[in-house]
Amino acid sequence: MTPSEVDRLAGLVSRADRIVVFTGAGVSTESGIPDFRSPGGVWDRFDPSEFTFQNFMGSEAGRRRYWELGRTTFPVIRRAEPNPGHHALVTLWRLGKLDCVITQNIDNLHQRAGLPADRVIELHGNATRARCLACETAYERERIQEWLDAGVEVPMCDPPCGGIIKPRTIMFGEAMPRVELEESERRARACDLFVVVGSSLVVYPAAYMPLHAKDAGATLVIVNLTETPHDNQADLLVRGSAAGVLASVVDRLQPRPVAR
Ligand code: NAD
Hints:
With 260 residues, this protein is α/β, with parallel strands linked by helices. It has two domains: 1-33 and 80-124 and 176-254, TPP-binding domain (Rossmann fold); 35-79 and 125-169, SIR2/SIRT2 'Small Domain' (2-Layer Sandwich). The chain is built from ten helices and nine strands. A six-stranded parallel beta sheet has the order 3-2-1-7-8-9, with helices on both faces. A three-stranded antiparallel beta sheet has the order 5-4-6. Helix 6 links the parallel strand 2 and strand 3 (120-122). It is elongated. The two termini are 33 Å apart. Bound molecules: nicotinamide-adenine-dinucleotide.
């Protein structure tokens, strides 16, 4: 990140009226949650093809394997705290600049930082909640974790239901949530500035959102540590850490105390 890139982004933000920020796993790595595709990320340690919706629904063995992984990954999400990047987005909202955050993240950190739930569109669900697929009873993921820690291998709904409990995340191979997808596309097409933060932009249909925004006439900014396939569409590219860039931008927007 160079000072001039941050200045340019701060200028775009201060001139914009309706900003949509699109976040990926990169906005939460500085909170200690590894992303999927960076070296050392989750996919270096697990085979994604094993953790599909079809495998989860298809057999008890598939669900057992899923929860075995979930038992180890949930504590990472549970102990993570929002970082200056999440907090900067809350400031942007308080300044009346932010229409919404569209996130691929499942970690609940935007809400925990203070963004109202109705300002966060979760395209891939939320890992802090779970639900019975038969009777739709809601479960806190925290409670499921207690069961797993106590030796339960495949959590099932309380009697008499006994239905399959599934976390409220969208698994590979599972249909996207229709309402969230439509709402994201609508907001992307209605904004004047669309800022991607910390996403490899390779997971579809989420990765169409910047293209919808651009197609409808918005200015597109991509803040990411590494290249993305949509870099050639961006009006401004900022190579830098999500937390550092967002905090510096917001800092430039805040009125400074006048020395007397
Ligand atoms: P990804 O892992 O494919 O890509 C993350 C991108 O962020 C990479 O391009 C990387 O270079 C960049 N990055 C990493 N740290 C950064 C930082 N500090 N500042 C700026 N950029 C940084 O993630 P994705 O595009 O979000 O797609 C992966 C899928 O994984 C998503 O659908 C999401 O559901 C899921 N996921 C979520 C979490 C989470 O909730 N925190 C974590 C891992 C994966």
